[in-house]
Amino acid sequence: MILPLEFYQRDTKKVARELLGKILVHKLPNGKRLAGRIVETEAYLGVIDLAAHSYGGLRTERTSTMFMAGGHIYVYLIYGLHSCLNVVTQKMGVPEAVLIRAVEPTEGVDEMKKRRPKARKEIDLTSGPGKLCAAFGISRKHNALLLTDGEVFIEDAPPLKRSQIVASARIGVEYAEHAAEWPLRFSERANPYVSKPQPSDG
């Protein structure tokens, strides 16, 4: 079952946690599916979050998608090259989102390998936000689409147990002062597709 819009129109941290284990799908024009279990996410808390594009209520052509109702897709470029897939959360006008950082491929692996021929190992195909967008063929053209429109969507799956989830600081947001330390990165414990090593428990 495709997750309904109501799933996204909730507390952003809760959505980021509960997306773990769900299935990201890109249905290609030829009917083939590229799919994978979501194993790593990051929450971005909008107006109060120095790491968010919409911090302070900043509304630009790029960030306007974040102000849409939860359930829209927000895709932006980093370094002008790599697409990053986010799902908008909360109600319309509350500019928060969840970055999908990594997935574990479940369908269409051969197609993903064609899209990322330089990936030496299967584990490198989707273990990072730019990698997964390249492997899945997700780009700026998908920005502002609804996750219920049938091209890019997320399917329900059994939730992970709390003991399976690691919460830690987000990656690459050192500029965000105190917000850089907020434990808003969620990942599946010991999953090899997580983009970077997880903090130890000790």
Fill in the keyword field for this structure.
202 residues; alpha+beta; 3-methyladenine DNA Glycosylase, Chain A; eight-stranded antiparallel β-sheet; 8 strands; globular
Indicate the topology:
Blueprint: H1 5-8, H2 12-18, E1 23-27, E2 33-44, E3 73-78, E4 82-89, E5 96-107, H3 109-115, H4 129-136, E6 152-155, E7 165-168, E8 185-188
Number of helices in the DSSP assignment: 4
CATH homolog superfamily: Methylpurine-DNA glycosylase (MPG)
The helix-and-strand class reads alpha+beta
Mean pLDDT comes to 95
Question: If you had to describe this structure to a student in words, what would you say it looks like?
Answer:
With 202 residues, the chain is of the alpha+beta class. The protein has a single domain (5-184), classed as Methylpurine-DNA glycosylase (MPG) (3-methyladenine DNA Glycosylase, Chain A, Roll). It has four helices and eight strands, in the order ααβββββααβββ. It has helices at residues 5-8, 12-18, 109-115, 129-136; strands at residues 23-27, 33-44, 73-78, 82-89, 96-107, 152-155, 165-168, 185-188. Strands 1, 2, 3, 4, 5, 6, 7 and 8 form an eight-stranded antiparallel sheet that branches. A hairpin with a 6-residue loop joins strand 4 and strand 5. The longest helix has 8 residues, at 129-136. The protein is globular and about 45 Å long. It starts with a helix and ends in a 14-residue tail after the last strand.
